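Translate sequence into structure tokens.
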Amino acid sequence: MSVESILAPLFVQVALIFILVFYMGSMRFGALRRREVRIGDIALGQSNWPPYAAQAGNAYNNQFQMPLLFFVLVILAYLFKKADLIFVIMSWVFVVSRILHAYVHVTSNNLRWRFTIFVVGVVVLMVMWIIFALRIVLALG
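Result follows.
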């Protein structure tokens, strides 16, 4: 697989993080501008954001949980030349699950959908790690 094919899902995941940080920033700045939260509360680390701003912040923070394992895996799979077509397809499935998870998180925040999408991403990532580990340990293609 080409480096572009292997890294494209990673680049999209990074783009999602940047989109969410700017979205979160706009929600928080708007809450401050409308005086829905006091700057002193934020400076003290208290979580007094209005629900919509907290939702945006939570969606952003979620991108540093499971995606961290994804970033490490993609880099390792590339370096050890263990990224094949199946790996790239699974990478895209994981990233699409993160996009959908973030979308649900910042819109309806429907927990059933959000959880289902989250589980899909977790299972795909877990399978990717298992395949990678087996390929390394057993020295498979």
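Note: The mean pLDDT is 94.
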